[in-house]
Design a protein that fits this description.
By secondary structure, the chain is mainly α. It is 74% helix and 0% strand.
Length: 112
């Protein structure tokens, strides 16, 4: 019983760490670019990022399920119900948060 609990705890920590690193690897550069660049459509991307921060976790879970199910576009990878699928789902949840926080931090920097 204790061994199963310990194994589940370590799996949860590994999945969370991997998802955080993945979201950071994508979200920090995206947020830095979004915070420093000026281009047409930037405002729409900022609104989209802010909107995605409120996406329900159930919706993300359904999206990942549809993508990874046997008939889904990524079904051939057989990743459904694996730690990799959990990493993908958690990273999709964290990505808008990391992007928006980075964008906000970059926008408040002194331009000098």
């Amino acid at each position: 019983m204790t061994e199963d609990l310990l194994r589940a705890t370590w799996l949860s920590l590994r999945v969370s760490l991997a998802a955080t690193l993945l979201a950071g690897a994508v979200g920090v550069p995206a947020g830095a670019w979004l915070g420093s660049a000026r281009f047409p459509g930037r405002r729409a991307l900022v609104v989209l990022t802010n909107t995605l921060m409120a996406i329900p976790t159930v919706l993300v879970g359904l999206l990942v399920y549809v993508l990874l199910s046997r008939q889904g576009p990524l079904g051939v990878l057989s990743m459904l119900y694996t730690p990799a699928a959990m990493v993908l789902g958690e990273a999709l949840l964290a990505l808008p948060l990391v992007t928006a926080l980075t964008r906000g931090a970059v926008e408040t920097l002194d331009p000098r």
